Amino acid sequence: MGQTISGLSYSTTDSTIVGTWTTNTSANSNITCGGKNGIDNGVAASSTSHQAIVPGLINNTLYSCTVTSGSTTSSPQNVTTLVAQTRIRVTSAIMGSNTELANSSLGDTFRSFVSNDGFTYMTEDDGNGFKIGTTTSANTQIGKITDENALTGTQVSLSNYGPFNTTNGTDGPGGAAMTNKSTGLFGLNGNLHAFVYRQFPPTYSTNRYANWIKSTNHGATWNNFTAASTFTANGNPVTPNSPAEPIQFYDLTIGLVAPILYAADDGTLGYNTAGNQIDGANAYVYCTFLKDTTPLYLLRIPRIQFDAQTSSAFEYWVGPQSPAVADFVNDANWSASPTSATVILSGAPTGAWFQIAFVPSINSYILTTWSSGGGTNFTFYSAPTPAGPWNLFFSKNNPTSGMHWYGPFPFHRDLIGNVLTNNIPLRIVYQGELNLGHYRPNWATLTLSTTPLPGASNTFVQGDADTSGQPSQNFISKAFPSSVTKGDLLVITWRRASSGAVTSVDDNMGSGNVWTVVYDTSMSGATHGWAYTFTNATGVCTVTVHLSTSSVNALSAIGEWSGPNAVRATAAMRLKSSTNSLVSNSITVHNGDLMLGVFSPANGGTSFTASGTGWTGREVASITSTKWLLLSDNLSASAGSQTATATCAGSQTGLGSGIAAFYYLPPAGGVSPFLVGR
What's the CATH class of domain 5-80? Predict the structure, then answer.
């Protein structure tokens, strides 16, 4: 009897199709849907039980699917992906009182993951871990939590990575010794995966040589990527540590790699696991990573290749910094080359720890991180996809008097166990150092709110612009005429006659404001750009655009608007070498959106106005005899595709224009859905 395929069934999400079937003899596993092959085709070992997945599909779309094992192919079957899922945004939070754990020297970097044995495992660097009453500490180790109320447990030894604060090798800057640390924990297919890296202790900002170790027996033994089939007790460091580590990732400066948290490991690859059924998370493991101190990038690895520690399967996010939901699963926004990798969070703290976690009950994400300076600041962001767009929803300053705090990390069990869509309690575990003397674990409950933020109709509050060029300097600075109000949208646009680039945008408020640079590039011998933030505080505000080179006669214009609290879409500048007019990039808006237009002609002129359906004509203009800059608004846009037109009197050989839409999240059954990608 020849080979037969039986029991074939298909399961779907809004961007993936999974085929499951059996064969009467051992064979390989392949799937094709709509002409697109599965990412695991031919990868799985021959078997009589089969599963394969096609990601990157369009929601609510019919695909013709077949599966193949050996020389046998099933009959085509029509399969329709699910409609796009509603996503609910975290808008604010309240952090409860601090609780100090009994483990007086547990360590730090408390990343947790629920494995298929039902236990939560947690990374611990630079401490004693759960070995209460001992004085032996370690560079890195992993705890197995047996009491999740008290957060106590037993120890998984990684003693081969060295005692606390010990160094070895010559792989650091200038041939210096480095120390071993861990970052990131993940589980699938019944295996635990821990990410480890090398750190330069004098600065603690040189983080390199990321790789991951794998355990098939919940920490009893471990391998590493250079010896995938060799498992040893107490960890398996990569050697020689001198003169340099082997490089698993594309660059030796990649150190802190952290998988995004989705569902617990159920002992499978997770293709049909509840809690993975969004954004292709049932097909890929997504990870954030830093290059030394430059945050924050994103990569993905097919789940089956991740479990095999296949470094050739990495792909890097090269899509927009403010993606729509559909952008995230579009294969065109991922590249095997990291050259054009997109920073997913502009203005993020450098050298800090980051953790992205999926909140399944609301189908969206949170990001936790921290920074130091004037105390330590916990900062929390929300987004509809792992690539953003990220909005700050809560921050907390922790004064350093008596205790130095840092972390913080969400507790995985609380995420996967939650069913609430508002007032979601989530334990945040972080480190406290009493007078910088020892490492003490602490936690507090962060209650996530999806209640809409206070808002009103879109209103122009204030603006100002230069009437003459700024002096020659390596920055452009502009102050708002009056205090800005917490939650308002702030925008700055600039024009300079120099090469180089904008390195960052910030302000003087010390409030954790994150400025997103939408555009900055050369235009007919000048450079134009703009950036925005939703301010996290009320007060006097001066915005500074930092330049890589000095510029003379730079111009700037700023504006403040109340009402919106999220960005729907932005379009990069569009240039047109013609006279008198330019049409910007088009964007899609919803009724009531605030639209902003940013315009700049390459040459002078006698007048400069913005026009388009619904535009108010309000203009914040920066004008000199030879340079022009304009910021204009439409307070209540009409739904659909919108453009903005700039008209300038006089001959123009080059014009620049950009457009953006911002919106307020109104109540929707007591919660606030993301209104993107629908």
Answer: mainly beta
